[in-house]
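Entry 14. Ran structure prediction on the chain below.
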Amino acid sequence: MTDRNDIVKREETMPERSRELPAVVPLVDIYENEDEILLYADMPGVEKNNITINIENGKLALSAIRKITASGAAGWEEFSDVEYQRTFSVPQAIDVGKVNAELKDGVLRLHLPKSEAAKPRQIEIKAG
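Output, structure tokens:
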């Protein structure tokens, strides 16, 4: 089983809601290459300051709050403030100290670099 499969299959259930906001599970795509696992989380309307990412005891927890600010009386409302929440198990092969994230166009990109020991390597054979 690869690390990617681990992070996909061992997704945890949603944590309990801590606020009165409705909780939404963000859609994610997960890719893996030799150097990292890259997780894309779709969280439209979220500002950078309202995102929390925690990695602790082998679990990655994403949480974000989307707040809609509008003026005037609502004539029709189909979306409102929400809290995005999702938790994954993180393989031990991830170098937690080098994890980084970026937010662009409502998509959070989370880079989970593999530790040097976990990267594939080719063994050179010496001729005697």
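The longest strand covers residues 59-66. Will compare against last week's run tomorrow.
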